[in-house]
Amino acid sequence: MASKATSIDIAYRAGVSQSTVSRALRNSPLVNLETRQRIQAIAKEMNYKVDKNASNLRTQNSHTLALLICEDPTNDDSMINPFFLSMLGSITRATAQQGYDLLVSFQQLSSDWHADYEDSNKADGIILLGYGDYMDYAHKLEKLLAQNTHFVIWGAEHNNKSVLSIGCDNHQGGVIATQHMLAQGRKHIAFLGDSSSHSPEFRDRYLGHCEALKEQQIKPNKQLQFDAISTESSGFDAANKLLDKGIEFDAIFAASDLIAIGALRALKKRGVDVPNDVAIIGYDDIPVASFANPSLTTIKQNTQLAGEILVESLLKLIRGQEVAPMLIPTNLVIRHSCGASAD
Amino acid sequence: MASKATSIDIAYRAGVSQSTVSRALRNSPLVNLETRQRIQAIAKEMNYKVDKNASNLRTQNSHTLALLICEDPTNDDSMINPFFLSMLGSITRATAQQGYDLLVSFQQLSSDWHADYEDSNKADGIILLGYGDYMDYAHKLEKLLAQNTHFVIWGAEHNNKSVLSIGCDNHQGGVIATQHMLAQGRKHIAFLGDSSSHSPEFRDRYLGHCEALKEQQIKPNKQLQFDAISTESSGFDAANKLLDKGIEFDAIFAASDLIAIGALRALKKRGVDVPNDVAIIGYDDIPVASFANPSLTTIKQNTQLAGEILVESLLKLIRGQEVAPMLIPTNLVIRHSCGASAD
DNA sequence: CTGAAAGCGCTTACAG
DNA sequence: CTGAAAGCGCTTACAG
Q1: Nearest nucleotide (C1') to the CA of residue A52?
Q2: Strands A225-226, A189-192: pairing kind
Q3: What part of B 77-106 touches A (C-beta under 8 Å)?
Q4: Residue B146: pLDDT band by 50, 70, 90 thresholds?
Q5: Considering chain B, what is the average pLDDT of its residues?
Q6: Which of A101, A97, A95, A161 is nearest to A314 (CA)?
Q7: CATH topology (fold) of A64-168+303-329
Q8: What are the pLDDT digits (tens) for A129-143?
Q9: CATH number listed for the domain at residues B170-301
Q10: Which nucleotides of chain D are near protein (any atom < 7 Å from a CB)?
Q11: How many other CB atoms are found less than 10 A from the CB of residue B267?
Q12: A293 vs B288: CB contact, 8 Å cut-off?
């Protein structure tokens, strides 16, 4: 197979120097318009493309971002959290819109992901996504910071202020979910999800939940909180524990849709009617939420906007511009599991 | 911020030449074991990483694959086909397992995606995924071929034998879906999905469907075939057309789960009971399939295996090894929309 | 407006 | 086993 054309080949064909070819292809006004167009035409005809390795090496930037999706090791290999998939879609689009390429990688939390991409000049910066145990990777973030890696992280605000975090307003989401349940006349609301600092996003949702309760002079009851990570089976288990406890409850606020769907399955199995006996609200609005039976009332995170902001913020960081952490507002999506009138 | 360490910095610290550093880091047996280890230790300590742009430029390969997901322009921007998302996950994993990086990009069919990645040396090869109108991009494949780009395409077998295609056995999927419906006593089966050569995958499913009918001496009825692309709304529309026609039918074979779910919504709206009045089978087994109401019987494609085979085949192609197109068998997943006994 | 030249950071024949 | 040197294909000061 014919080896690829280089700028020297183009120069030869155009009867100019290689430097002129390089300028013309970058559309430099330094080059005479006519020769510029002639060179561009020849390049197109010869199907010439600038060698990115060479130009990146020369300019010392890659015009590439890396997306690291950190999976909880407990997660079933085949089932990626649909929320991340949705974020992936929007990040891909936003990256392309900015003229950057996107390197995607799924990583176990345990592995040594912290450095490779930017250090090896494959990417100018990194976007981190992950629902893992926060404590497990806090020190990795410190390391990234120490290396001056450009990165932005999805999720709750970080206590180290140097870490740029972008996320949805989990506290507000917890508030509006709980307010909605209260407005439906529910008083004994169980919370399914980790509420410790190991999962700052879930914790913020829980804190918002508690705040909404207090607004109505209801004292949050720790007996009604059950740990769960964001999987269907974990939600199933947590709901079973709740049922086994024999404590009174008329609603469940699940820290994620996956948890809610697992809880739904547990309730159904025990003959509990949703929403008549127990109302449920989830979190994320993943695609399956609207197809659950009953359809799942949930807190929607605007992934479209989130992807755009993540990419924009990271690019600003790379360019040395001013950036601040940001919280994106969430929306309540009312469906049949809590609030929508029955068909 | 301190600029990144280079192999020269390491060489200086280790008191050897830069060439020796390069060799040591690639673990070349040419270098004395002791010095090799000393150099590696220093590199680690200084957090040195080989500059990929430089090494790729030098070796003329990128150790990166590109994944191009071509979206149908009619598709809603926010809703990526969940089946692709699932493929994306498995391809990412398979790529990482082979020590390659993955560049991901979503493209409109209309845009000029054909060449850029490999031509610019950003990727060694391309994986193409897409449910668009086949005719629209057939000529782009020709162009890729003409440029000697290494690529593998997901889907139906291509009539140009030089195109390496990997896909699930759509014909077999159509056969087993239809056999299952027939075994349930259904006789008048509508097919929702394009059956022309514009969508070779759907066409193969349709042909399998027809073959299964013929096995039972049933003549396929073109009146029962309705075009649809793989979206929920297209399925909704197609089912409505079917209902409006007033033709007798007791089952629907939808060319994709998304179509099936749209059809389910249309039937529900018209008061048709699924599965009692009409049974439905979809295709893909996307996550929502099991949460549909009733849960959706469907043909499962093994995306895990598919991703592995796609990546392996592409790598073989790149290395100049023998590769052949491949069809992966599909499985019937029986749920309540057709075949599973009611709870 | 154009060209000759340096240099980005590696890998790898070549010589010893 | 090790080093000096060439060269991958660009971009961009520098000189004209």
Answers
A1: D10
A2: parallel
A3: 77-80, 82, 85-86, 88-90, 92-93, 96, 101-106
A4: confident
A5: 86
A6: A95
A7: Rossmann fold (3.40.50)
A8: 876 666 667 777 887
A9: 3.40.50.2300
A10: 1-5, 7-13
A11: 21
A12: no
